[in-house]
Amino acid sequence: MIELTKIVKRYQEHEVLRGVSLTVDDGEVCVLLGPSGGGKSTLLRTINGLETFDSGKIRVGDVTLPATPGPERDKSLAIIRQRVGMVFQQFNLFPHRTVLQNVTEAPIHVLKQPRDVAVATARRLLERVGMLEKQDARPGSLSGGQQQRVAIARTLAMSPEAILFDEPTSALDPRTTAEVISVMTDLAAAGQRMIVVTHAMSFARTVAHQVHILHAGTIAESGPPLQIFEAPQTDITRSFLSEAAIA
Ligand SMILES: Nc1ncnc2c1ncn2[C@@H]1O[C@H](COP(=O)(O)OP(=O)(O)OP(=O)(O)O)[C@@H](O)[C@H]1O
Ligand SMILES: [Mg+2]
């Protein structure tokens, strides 16, 4: 389980997260929606330690992540980063390595897997995301959607308990978006726990178990998609959805 309790994050005087609490259970898909600047990326980055936070508690399974830098935080982070993978809007693949090398890199160097084991796993995962035939290509020769599917395979290669997705399709055109969404939908169906920030409303509607509306650093509303989309309880949700429908 991932459990966030009253997370507060400030940049100087600006309180970007103002006491955010949420839990994500095993096998659960959690979607974060909300207007730009609401704190969605900051929240994801806080969970896997790319940002510190000022107060509150983050728990991933039996590991608690302290808010501020120090040896305790470093120890927890090393464990959390292996348990929680992240997929970014801009893919962040190594440009000078092949697709296969991108996927085997961390299992070989971080998990110390034997090369042949890492390669076999990487090929299976590339097959799963429909990218095996490009295993020897460089990322630069692939479409954005193909690169993102490789990035997802790379994340899966660490066998994460949860994957954080930060707008994985917002740099993509509609066709390649559909390919990536289809891979994410398959992962969800296989019980992969994930937290997804996205503008892909149909994904939120059909795949999410819980949807949270993050607005100005607080959760304005949480609930299953049926509630959020068919019977929203707050004005913030209603106005976010009507603006999203126009966009
Ligand atoms: N490194 C930083 N230094 C100062 N302020 C920051 C920093 N990163 C984010 N912020 C501020 O924190 C707030 C939340 O930003 P964040 O990127 O988390 O929003 P978001 O919900 O992901 O928005 P978007 O939908 O545009 O991606 C914004 O007001 C932003 O300007
Ligand atoms: Mg963002």
Account of the protein in words:
This protein is an alpha/beta fold and 247 residues long. The protein has one domain (2-92, 161-246): Rossmann fold (3-Layer(aba) Sandwich). It has helices at 40-47, 71-83, 99-109, 115-128, 144-156, 174-189, 201-207, 225-230, 235-246; strands spanning 2-11, 14-24, 29-33, 55-60, 63-65, 84-87, 162-166, 193-197, 210-215, 218-223. The strands form 2 sheets. The protein has a 6-stranded mixed sheet, with helices on both faces. It has a 4-stranded antiparallel sheet with strand order 2-1-4-5. Helix 6 (174-189) links the parallel strand 7 and strand 8 (193-197). The radius of gyration is 18 Å and the shape is globular. The mean pLDDT is 95. Residues 11, 16, 34, 36-42 line the site of adenosine-5'-triphosphate (ATP).
Keywords:
247 residues, alpha/beta, Rossmann fold, six-stranded mixed beta sheet, four-stranded antiparallel beta sheet, globular, binds adenosine-5'-triphosphate, binds magnesium ion
Secondary-structure topology with pairs:
Elements: E1 2-11, E2 14-24, E3 29-33, H1 40-47, E4 55-60, E5 63-65, H2 71-83, E6 84-87, H3 99-109, H4 115-128, H5 144-156, E7 162-166, H6 174-189, E8 193-197, H7 201-207, E9 210-215, E10 218-223, H8 225-230, H9 235-246
Parallel strand pairs: 3-8, 3-9, 6-7, 7-8
Antiparallel strand pairs: 1-2, 1-4, 4-5, 9-10
Helix pairs in contact: 3-4, 3-5, 4-5, 5-6
